[in-house]
Amino acid sequence: MDDWYVISNVDRIDSPALAFYPDRISGNIELAKRIIGDTNRLRPHVKTNKAAEVSRMLLDAGIRKFKCATIAEAEMLGHMNAPDVLLAYQPVGPKISRLLDLIKAYPATHYSCLVDQAENARAISALCEAGNITLDVFIDLNVGMNRTGVLPERAEALVDAILPLKSLQIIGLHGYDGHIHDAELSVRCQGADAAYALTERVFREISRKFAYPLVKVMGGTPTFPMYAKRKDCECSPGTFVFWDWGYGNAYPDMPFKVAALLITRVISVLDEHHVCVDLGYKAVASESPLPRVFFLNHPEAKPISQSEEHLVLEVPDSRLYPLGSVFYGIPVHICPTVALYDKAYVIRDREAIGEWPIIARSRRITY
């Protein structure tokens, strides 16, 4: 239905607010499973949802492998007894000890992490040895994003430096291709093929050094369908669970549905063509240029300026938007938007029926 998002008791929800629609979340999870075929190859990234209840939905759907970016997310998954958790971040400094604390606190969860520098690998190994822990690690490859990861031509040397470390065990390669976000499907496919080729070349070079098979973890949401067709790698989409305006507008070939919205209200009528809503920088991810949100029930409203608690909209006739008017918005980027809220309202059958804490938005839960 065109107005699936409307909440009958929205008057009970103070704005700005985040709303989750579990039935649509479930549909997105099932779609991801159908795309990949083999659920054992699906390793969703929980950086998007940061909520135990959403992660539980993934577990209940038969998904056993997860990826995360923070220790808090890793702890959330450990508390749920998630079987396999990859910290897709190279731990440095105090983060190393925090990861080892999780390994001790949640023995039912198998933790691993990324490494891309020999010196840091030795630091991790030393603390593991002191704690009588053997830690599985993935070599983080720079496949073109130029953010983290060892360059492919230096990967074998890194492997050789890590192999003598008795407390670390290399179990695979990680290639995140966040630089590939082309709207044109054929161009996106070419980018994914190039990233895979780099990873596969390193994979062949280093596999001979191991008596056991290595794992490849590839990609995010935009290239998920490309890697899903390859049977020799795990896929780690994240945004798919909620979807957003940025991906929905850019990738019409991916039929996921929006499952998380923002609720905002008109707080001031400025003149004949401008109103202000309570959706400032602190309520929607602001790293993108305006517009940062698209309004389902008022697509004609055009964001023109934003500050900490305010978003000014240009409208055809401000008399149609009296004080208190409710707007339902799809953020351009859902992942950092979720992290701005301490809870989400749960919407079923057009009614807000409860709240789910965004527990992993914190940098620390316990450990």
Automatic annotation (TrEMBL):
For the keyword Transmembrane, the answer is: no
Q: Which UniProt keywords apply?
A: Lyase
**EC number, as in UniProt:** 4.1.2.42
> Molecular function (GO) terms listed?
D-serine ammonia-lyase activity; D-threonine aldolase activity
Which domain of life, per UniProt?
Answer: Bacteria
Q: Where is the D-serine dehydratase-like domain?
A: 259-348
GO biological process terms on file: D-serine catabolic process
Q: Which residues cross the membrane?
A: none
Provide the family line.
Belongs to the DSD1 family.
Query: Which PANTHER family does this UniProt record tie to the protein?
Result: D-SERINE DEHYDRATASE, ZGC:162816-RELATED
Q: What is this protein called?
A: D-TA family PLP-dependent enzyme
Q: Which organism is it from?
A: Parabacteroides distasonis
